[in-house]
Design a protein that fits this description.
The complex is a heterodimer. Chain A is of the alpha/beta class. Helices cover about 45% and strands about 15% of the residues of chain A. In chain A, strand 3, helix 8 and strand 4 form a beta-alpha-beta unit. Chain B is mainly alpha-helical. The chains are: A alpha/beta, B mainly alpha. Chains A and B meet through helix 2, helix 3, strand 1, helix 6 and helix 7 of A and strand 1, helix 2, helix 3 and helix 5 of B. Strand 1 of chain A pairs antiparallel with strand 1 of chain B, so a sheet runs across the interface.
C-alpha cells in the first residue's frame, strides 16, 4: 500500500488531504465543512463512540450496536451497494434477501470491531486474544532480516499490532491509509498516538511523505513492516489478479515491490473476530523470495499470485469480516480474438 | 514468544445475580481454546449473560412502550401513528441512557465521579426508570400490562436477592 505519486497529482480532487490546503476557488463554506463532520467519514461518529463506550451500560451495548448497524446499513448506500456487489461475486447463487443478510452481518461485525477498538483505547482490558499458527509466528520472531507482514482489512489489526510486537520483541511499523476526512484523520491520529510504543509505530500513507523509501530502509534495518494487502484506496498502485474464472480483483502492488527490493519474507497474518470481545490472530507460513538473481517481473508476479491465493482463501472463509466497502472485483476481460 | 501450556481459561465471572445463579446451577466450564495460545482479558464477563440481558431489556422496554402508546388516550387514534410513536419513544428511552450521561458528564466530573462510577450510576438510574414504569404498569386495567409489570418486578426482586446472596457467600468464604 505504498503511494505512487506519479499516478496522480498531489492536488487531485480525489485526494484525501484535499481539504488540508484547498485552493481559493475550491474553498468549502464553513457551514458545509461543519455539516461534513456529521457525514459517515466525519469525526462526529468516532468521537461519540469513544465517549459512549465509557458511559453506556453494558446491557445496552449489543442493542445499540444492532440499532446503529441497521441505521448505517440503510444510510450508507454506496458502501452497501459495494458490499452487495462483492458478496455477489463470492456467493453467486445467493438470493437477494440472503445477500442483504450477509451484507448486514458484515456491517454488524464492523460495528463490533469499532466498538472493541474504542474500548481498548479507553484502557478497558476486555478483549481475549487467541493465536493460531504459533509456529509461524515464532518463525517470524526468529527471522534475522526484516519482514513484511501482509494483512487484510479484518478484525482490529491496528490494535493487535502493539500487543504482538511486544510479544515478538521486534519493532513493528504499521502502515495505515489516512482517514478520508480531515478532522477524522486528525482525531484518529491523536487516538492512535496513544497506541505507539517502543515496539510499535504507526505510519500513514500520506502523499509526499516518501513512505516507500522510509519502509525500504526500515526493512534493511531488519525491522518488521505490517501492510494491508487487500484494499486500493486513494493513490495506491494496484495490480490486477484473477479471483475466479469470471472475476479479477485489484490488489496493492506496493508490499511486493517493498519485499522484492529488500528481499524480506512476506508473512500473511490475519486478525478475525471469533466471538463477542474475542479475536483470533492467524499466522500462515511466510513466502521467501527465490535465492540468487531474479527476473524481477516474474518474481513479483509469483509473489502477487501467492498472496492472491492466500487472501482469497481467507476472504471466502471469513467473508463476514472482510471490511472492504468499495467494489473489489471486476469482470475478467475477454481474451482478444 | 514462548508457547504457553494448554490450559482452560479461568471462568468468566457473571455480572448479575441471575447470571451467577445460572452459572452455579449449570456448573458451566469454559470451553477449551481452539487455538495454540490465549491471552485472556482481565475484565471479562459471559457473552450469554450480556446478550440475554440485552434482549430481555430491549424486549421488555419495547413491549412497555407499545402498551403505553396503544392504551394512551391523549395520542392520535391512528394505530400506525401510535406504533411509530411507540418505536420513537423506545429508541429515545434507550438513547437516554447514553445521551444524558454524555450531556451531564462535565457536571458529574465536577462531583469527582470517575467514568466507571458514572457508568454504574447510569445503569442503576436506567433500571430504576424501568422499575418505575413496571410499577405503573401493574396498576393498568389490562391483563397484559399488569403481567408485564409484574414480570419485571419479579425479575428485579430476584436479581436483588441473588446479588445479596452472592455477596453474603463471598464474605463468608474462607478465602475472603
Amino acid at each position: 500500500m505504498v503511494a505512487n505519486p506519479a499516478r496522480r497529482p498531489l492536488r487531485s480532487p480525489h485526494h484525501p488531504f484535499r481539504q488540508l490546503s484547498p485552493s481559493p476557488e475550491h474553498r468549502t463554506p464553513s457551514w458545509q465543512k461543519r455539516l461534513s463532520r456529521l457525514s459517515i467519514y466525519g469525526d462526529f461518529w468516532p468521537r461519540l463512540l469513544s465517549r459512549a463506550v465509557r458511559l453506556t451500560p453494558w446491557f445496552l451495548e449489543p442493542l445499540l450496536l444492532a440499532l446503529y448497524s441497521v441505521l448505517f446499513y440503510l444510510a450508507c448506500g454506496p458502501a452497501r451497494r459495494a458490499l452487495l456487489h462483492n458478496l455477489h461475486v463470492l456467493f453467486p447463487a445467493d438470493s437477494a434477501p440472503t445477500r442483504h443478510a450477509r451484507a448486514f452481518r458484515v456491517i454488524w461485525n464492523f460495528a463490533c470491531t469499532l466498538t472493541d477498538a474504542a474500548h481498548i483505547r479507553a484502557n478497558h482490558d476486555i478483549i481475549d486474544w487467541e493465536i493460531d499458527g504459533l509456529n509461524h509466528l515464532n518463525t517470524l520472531s526468529q527471522i534475522p532480516s526484516g519482514a513484511v507482514i501482509l494483512t487484510a482489512h479484518m478484525g482490529n489489526y491496528d490494535l493487535a499490532a502493539p500487543l504482538f510486537a511486544a510479544r515478538l520483541q521486534r519493532k513493528l511499523h504499521l502502515v495505515r491509509a489516512p482517514e478520508r476526512h480531515q478532522e477524522s484523520q486528525a482525531y484518529a491520529s491523536t487516538q492512535r498516538d496513544h497506541m505507539n510504543s517502543d515496539w510499535c509505530v504507526i505510519h500513514y500513507n500520506e502523499p509526499g511523505n516518501m513512505l516507500a523509501v522510509k519502509l525500504t530502509s526500515l526493512l534493511r534495518e531488519n525491522q518488521i513492516v505490517a501492510i494491508q494487502g487487500d484494499r486500493i484506496l486513494f493513490d495506491v498502485a494496484a495490480t490486477t489478479l484473477p479471483f475466479s474464472p469470471q472475476h479479477d480483483w485489484h490488489l496493492p502492488s506496493g508490499p511486493f515491490v517493498l519485499g522484492l527490493v529488500s528481499r524480506a519474507p512476506l508473512v500473511p497474518l490475519f486478525i478475525t473476530r471469533s466471538g463477542w470481545r474475542r479475536y483470533r490472530v492467524t499466522a500462515h507460513p511466510p513466502y521467501h523470495w527465490p535465492k540468487g538473481r531474479l527476473d524481477k517481473a516474474t518474481a513479483l508476479r509469483d509473489a502477487e499470485r501467492w498472496w492472491s491465493h492466500r487472501l482469497s482463501q481467507t476472504v471466502r472463509q471469513h467473508w463476514h469480516q472482510w471490511f472492504v466497502f468499495e467494489p473489489a472485483f471486476t469482470p475478467t476481460a475477454a481474451p482478444p480474438p | 514468544m514462548t508457547p504457553a501450556p494448554a490450559h482452560l481459561p479461568p471462568r468468566k465471572p457473571a455480572r448479575t445475580g441471575l447470571g451467577w445463579l445460572l452459572q452455579t446451577c449449570t456448573q458451566s466450564t469454559p470451553t477449551p481454546p481452539a487455538s495454540d495460545l490465549l491471552f485472556p482479558a482481565t475484565h471479562r464477563h459471559p457473552t450469554t449473560e450480556t446478550f440475554t440481558a440485552s434482549c430481555l431489556i430491549a424486549a421488555w422496554s419495547l413491549a412497555a412502550s407499545l402498551i403505553y402508546c396503544l392504551h394512551s388516550e391523549t395520542l392520535p387514534h391512528s394505530p400506525l401513528l401510535r406504533y411509530l410513536i411507540a418505536l420513537t419513544a423506545w429508541i429515545t428511552l434507550i438513547h437516554s441512557a447514553v445521551i444524558l450521561p454524555l450531556l451531564t458528564y462535565p457536571l458529574l466530573r465536577l462531583l469527582r465521579l470517575s467514568p466507571t462510577q458514572i457508568a454504574t450510576l447510569t445503569e442503576l438510574s436506567f433500571l430504576s426508570i424501568l422499575t418505575l414504569l413496571a410499577c405503573h404498569l401493574t396498576t393498568d386495567p389490562s391483563l397484559i400490562a399488569r403481567s408485564l409489570g409484574l414480570l419485571w418486578l419479579a425479575l428485579i426482586m430476584a436479581e436483588i436477592m441473588l446479588r445479596l446472596a452472592r455477596t453474603g457467600i463471598a464474605l463468608a468464604s474462607p478465602s475472603h
